[in-house]
Amino acid sequence: MTSLTGTTAQTLRGTIDPPPFGAAIAGAVVQISTLGWVWSQTSAAECIAQPVTCLLDLAPADPWGRQVVLTVTGALVIWLVSLLALLRGHAHSDPSIVDRLWSIQPVVYCWHFYFSAPSPRLLLMSLLVSAWGARLTWNFAIKGGFSGGEDYRWVEIRKWFPGDSQVS
Predict the structure, then answer these.
(1) How far apart are CA 164 and CA 166, in angstroms?
(2) Non-local CB neighbours of 4 within 8 Å, separated by 6+ positions
(3) Taking the alpha carbons of 58, 59, 61, 66 in that order, is the dihedral positive or negative?
(4) Each residue's pLDDT tens digit, 56-68
(5) Is residue 6 a contact partner of residue 145, using CB atoms and an 8 Å limit?
(6) Which of 2, 73, 76, 144 is most buried by a 10 A CB count?
(7) What distance in Å separates the CA atoms of residue 53 and residue 79, rounded to the nearest whole number?
(8) How far apart are CA 104 and CA 109, in angstroms?
(9) pLDDT digits (tens, 9 = 90+) for 60-114
(10) pLDDT bucket at 130, cuts 50 / 70 / 90
């Protein structure tokens, strides 16, 4: 390791240019629409149609439908939190919040499914994912990953792409 997470200044210098705003929004709309349509063809359709009812009345709600609603809600919250950097005067949002949640969210998802329909297989899967998540979280924490700032590995990844040779 050459650096601790959180010690690298956030910069996009040296990366490829982002897509135009309109193209990014169009891509997001296509992706979200596709997921919405696909999910509406599954047992999650009822929860998608009535998300509040699905979350408030857990017993009859389909576990997959609840997970879809929780995942979409979580993604929206993560996106809103990433925009806080803009409110603090930064030139771009902070996508590194995903790095901080990468080892935590799969554990939550697995235990949600286990408690929705307990079985030995789901218990084993949840325990294994919890052990993996604990290891990943520990490694990330001791490297300063939860201290804020950009993950140090992004500097290295930017070197893989053409652009400004002055990558920091």
Answers:
(1) 5
(2) 143, 144, 152
(3) positive
(4) 887 788 888 888 8
(5) yes
(6) 144
(7) 24
(8) 9
(9) 888 888 888 888 888 888 888 777 777 777 666 666 777 778 888 899 989 988 9
(10) very high
